[in-house]
Amino acid sequence: MIISLIGYMGSGKSTTGRDLAKTLGYEFIDLDQYIENKYELSVSEIFEKFGELGFRKREKETLAEILHKTNVVLSLGGGTPVYYDNIDVINTNSVSIFLRVQLPQLVKRLENKKHTRPLIAHLKDEEMMEFIAKHLFERNHFYQKAKHTISITNQSSSEVLNQIMDILK
Ligand code: S3P
């Protein structure tokens, strides 16, 4: 089985994914990390060299490659489900879980973490709320196609993990 975690940047996909993989005894794969190792470039460098479209093509190709594996927890990039037919491919080949985090919390979490994320790296702190609100509005349609949704407010990471384990029972 493959479990894929979907959600906006800063929603905790990688942290939760790592914990979940450990609990299940599955391999953990972070899609961005995997892409960085495969192409020997950081996500930001891929955006710079090949543009966003160049990144999306590599992302799609790598996603297909990983979905052939088994017993994997896969943390997707925030934009992965939004491009091409990726959400259908994800839902056909994995159990998808959307980690839904409210806007103010996302903004807070991303303020010191935007430099590695080319889509928001250029934003000033006071521009984050409006940008992310609009971005989420465009993306929620795709995120909501995930098989399961977990709403995260103030839960600790172990509470989030328990919620996911309940879903998987
Ligand atoms: C992106 C999210 C990033 C990374 C890239 C684009 C997006 O992943 O794939 O910077 O379009 O939301 P994280 O969600 O892991 O930050």
Task: Report what the structure shows.
Keywords: Amino-acid biosynthesis, Aromatic amino acid biosynthesis, ATP-binding, Cytoplasm, Kinase, Magnesium, Metal-binding, Nucleotide-binding, Transferase. The protein has 169 residues and is an alpha/beta fold. It has one domain: P-loop containing nucleotide triphosphate hydrolases (Rossmann fold, 3-Layer(aba) Sandwich), CATH 3.40.50.300. It is built from seven helices and five strands, in the order βαβααβαβααβα. Strands 2-3-1-4-5 form a five-stranded parallel β-sheet, sandwiched between helices. The model has no long low-confidence stretch (mean pLDDT 97). Residues 9, 13, 32, 43, 77-79, 117-119 line the site of shikimate-3-phosphate (S3P).
Which features would summarize this protein structure in a list?
169 residues, alpha/beta, Rossmann fold, 7 helices, 5 strands, 54% helix, 15% strand, globular, binds shikimate-3-phosphate, P-loop_NTPase, transferase, magnesium ion binding, aromatic amino acid biosynthesis, magnesium
How are helices and strands ordered from N to C?
EHEHHEHEHHEH
Beta-strand residue percentage: 5-15%
Distinct compounds present: shikimate-3-phosphate
Mean pLDDT: 97
CATH-assigned homologous superfamily: P-loop containing nucleotide triphosphate hydrolases
Could you state the oligomeric state of the chains shown? single chain
Structural Rg: 15 Å
- Gap from first CA to last CA: 13 Å
Total domains: 1
Q: So, CATH architecture?
A: 3-Layer(aba) Sandwich
General form:
globular
User: Helical region count?
Assistant: 7
Q: What is the CATH class name?
A: Alpha Beta
Q: Count every beta strand, where a strand is a DSSP E run of 2 or more residues.
A: 5
Largest beta-sheet details: 5 strands, parallel
Low-confidence stretches: none
Assign the structural class, choosing from mainly alpha, mainly beta, alpha/beta, alpha+beta, or little secondary structure: alpha/beta
Helix content estimate: 40-55%
Protein name: Shikimate kinase
Function: Catalyzes the specific phosphorylation of the 3-hydroxyl group of shikimic acid using ATP as a cosubstrate.
Main location: cytoplasm
Keywords: Amino-acid biosynthesis, Aromatic amino acid biosynthesis, ATP-binding, Cytoplasm, Kinase, Magnesium, Metal-binding, Nucleotide-binding, Transferase
